[in-house]
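name: query_chain
kind: protein
chains: 1
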Amino acid sequence: MSNEELVRRAKAGDQDALALLWEQNQGLLHTLFHNLVIKTRDRMTSAGVTWEDVEQCFFLAIAFAVEHYDPERGVLFASFLKYSVKTVYFDLIGFRSKRAINEPLTQSSSLDEVMPDGESTRGDLIPAPPDEDIDKAIYTEQLRNELERCLSTLEPQQANAIRCRYFKQLTLAETGKKLGCNAEYVRTLENKGMRKLRAPQNIRKLRPYQVLTESAYHGTGLTAWKYAGSVQERTVLKLECKGLL
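structure:
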């Protein structure tokens, strides 16, 4: 079946005709696109386009040609296809307008470009990202400083009890020995101090550091696990929904 007849059927909504037209012109498409690649290889490379990307445009070129081709003008479809191929290809490499030509991506240099010293590449000159441990240390230090500012609003004994219990991970008895009181009094100091830490002004200071909520330790029984998964799984899903993972 001729290209022109297939185009008529494709324009009438025959998807099989469009697919057959694409298969029937694979050789011509390969030649037309390959000739353009040879002429614009540097441009294509700078735009980060590979031959595999070009091959993906074969069908787009056919679809574009079918949409704009008019059989009544007497021009062969194969001839009109050249215009379609150029249009699709130049769009792909950003070469169709002044704005596209000036796109940062098409003007960028490859990270594999060898530098004048003949040994290093451009990618070697890019500073390595901060070490994860360094980021964590900075975050921890900032959080600790903010916590200390909140603790300064408590009575000294309450603040010291919380420092011993949460910063130093001491037991009630160990904390009582350090503060010179019994374990029950330590519990009282801790509870009163924690209530004051939940004051609105302190919550506002600590909210930027809040990752998990109180729901992290809810529903940890066997029934909850059976029907909703582990608390770790539910916590991860919640963090993903909030965009924190």
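note: The chain has a mean pLDDT of 77.
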